Structure formats: structure tokens, C-alpha cells
# Entry
Amino acid sequence: MRNVIMLTAKRTGSTFLMEALNSHSNVTCYDEMFMRTRGKKEKRRGQYLYGYMKTKKNMNYKQYINWLFENDGAISFRLMYPHLTKHKKVINVITADKIPVIHLTRKNYLAHYLSSQTKKTEKVNIDTGTIVKSMASLKSRELHHLKQLKGNQVPYIEIDYDDLFGSVEGNKDNIKNYGAFNIKSDQITYINKQTSKKICDFMEVDFKVLYSNVTKRNSWNIWDHIQNDKQVRKTIGKSDFSYLIKGI
# Structure
């Protein structure tokens, strides 16, 4: 069994994948282990606090990550791009120790941008002056981190958001708020078989189809939430991302 780090941007399906990894009996996936929390010192998802361990245990980044990986089974946690800006030395530990990485991306940069803008709101006007720049920035960050992994021969797999979702069972009953703009319900969404196998093989655990009961708050068609869709289509159509709206 193999410990890994899930590296990703926000609004890329990391909560869904985190819960899906936890559906495997030999995998434990924690939340953002470099985020700030208060009053939580237990080893629980989302409650590791690097500042606490640094202050109380004199842990550096390498020691902290090793501490996270102490438990039995395959351990993972999600690391967001902004964490690498704030904690710049983390990438040095990853590359030096060749810590395997699941690089979760969302190649539909338009859907990613719209998802970050709509959130809970039914209909919004999108700023057409920044949309192309924002998509280009995300693409640049993805390529930058991919270059770091490749250049340092870090074992990694790349999983795209659109390759996560397979069959769905049940209904959205007993809905509960869960995380940022996600819901948790009785409905189960499976990761498709091919992607599940790719992940299990990479983590060196027995194959099973992974699943999660975390799903989207908004509809699957993000255009349902955009008021100025014509202007958005026109702006994207004139950019290097025009391929994203063909056939829409």
C-alpha cells in the first residue's frame, strides 16, 4: 500500500474524490492538512494543524508529512495550490522524497471558472473581462506543477474531473450541507471502473469501484446559472479556449 498526496485546485472535485477514497477499506484520505483550524488537535480529516505541530512538537515540513503518514493502510490528504504558495517548502519535500501524487485537474477550464463564480446563487452575471485571464491562470498553474513533478521524477497520475463520475444510485434524500457548496445525501455516485482501477493500482490497494455520496449543489449544466450566457460565449469564442464551447 502506498501513501499519496492529492494535489489540486479548488472547485475541482477534490471533496468528491476524498470521500470516494475513503470508501475503500484500506485507504484513509484526510482533508487539507495545511489549513488553519482552531481547537482541534486530533488526527481527523481537516483537523491537522501544521502550526500547532510546528510550535508544540518542533516539526518541520518533512516530519509533519511523515507524521501524517504514520497510520496503517494507504494514507492520503489533499493539498491545494494555494497551500504551496503559503508553504513553499512543501513541494521540496514532495520532490526530494518522491512522494507519489494524484494530480486532480479540471481540463474544462470554463466549467471550473463558472463553478467558482456561481456557487449557491441561482443566476449570476459573469465578468467577461476576467474570465479568459482566470482560465489561463489555472491552466498555467496546472502545467507548472506538472512540470515540477515530471522534472523531479515524482511518481504521479493525472485524473481529470470529467473522468471521475460514473453511475448513480438512489435519490438525494436526507440532504445535509457538507463542505464548500457540496451536499451529502443518500444518493451514491460511483467513480467509473477504469478511473477507480487507475487510482487503486497507483495506491497499490485491492481494486474496487470507489464511490461517494457527496455531490453538486447546482445542476450539472452550469449554463443554467449564467444570466449573460451570450456574452460569455462570445468572449470565450474569441479566445484560445474557444474549443470549450463548441457544440454548446
